[in-house]
Amino acid sequence: MYVVMNELNVNEDQHEHVKARFEKSKDRMNDVPGCLEFLFLESEKEDVSFIVFTKWEAKSDYENWLNSDAFKHAHRGQQSQSQEKPPTTANNLRSFDVVFHT
Ligand code: HEM
């Protein structure tokens, strides 16, 4: 089992906008092979705004999704040539092998 979290920093005035965008991701992530869980977390501290939490059956399932059109489609807005300024000002990716779980 494998866990990947992407920490996002988003300007305060964009929080509701970003939450609404990720709301639509719930059902999409249900259909991704090997994705066991998808959580969109809002932080109580100011050092980070949101955490995109994903849990996978295997690291290879995560890597397959990373190389998929579904991933590219969801991240189109992050490209610099996009007209619209992306609401995310910084991100920090963390990945983990799961040692124990219940
Ligand atoms: C350059 C790095 C990344 C940034 C800045 C970023 C930011 C974002 C943003 C803003 C969205 C919402 C897109 C929309 O407006 O609909 C999104 C979608 C998403 N991101 Fe990322 N992301 C990055 C890479 C990753 C990685 C490596 C993961 C792995 C956990 C990840 C997990 C997700 C998931 C699960 C979604 C929802 C996918 C869907 O709706 O189908 N992101 N990301």
Give an overview in words.
By secondary structure, the protein is of the alpha+beta class. It has one domain: Alpha-Beta Plaits (2-Layer Sandwich), CATH 3.30.70. Helix content is 28%, strand content 33%. It has helices spanning 15-23, 25-30, 59-66, 69-74; strands at residues 2-10, 35-42, 50-56, 88-97. A four-stranded antiparallel β-sheet has the order 2-3-1-4. The N and C termini lie close together (12 Å). The mean pLDDT is 93. The structure holds protoporphyrin IX containing FE. The site of protoporphyrin IX containing FE has 19 residues, from strand 1, helix 1, helix 2, strand 3 and helix 4.
In short, what is this structure?
Keywords: Oxidoreductase. The relative contact order is 0.29.
Task: Describe the structure using short key phrases.
102 residues, alpha+beta, Alpha-Beta Plaits, 4-stranded antiparallel beta sheet, 28% helix, 33% strand, globular, binds protoporphyrin IX containing FE, ABM_dom, oxidoreductase, Heme oxygenase (Staphylobilin-producing)
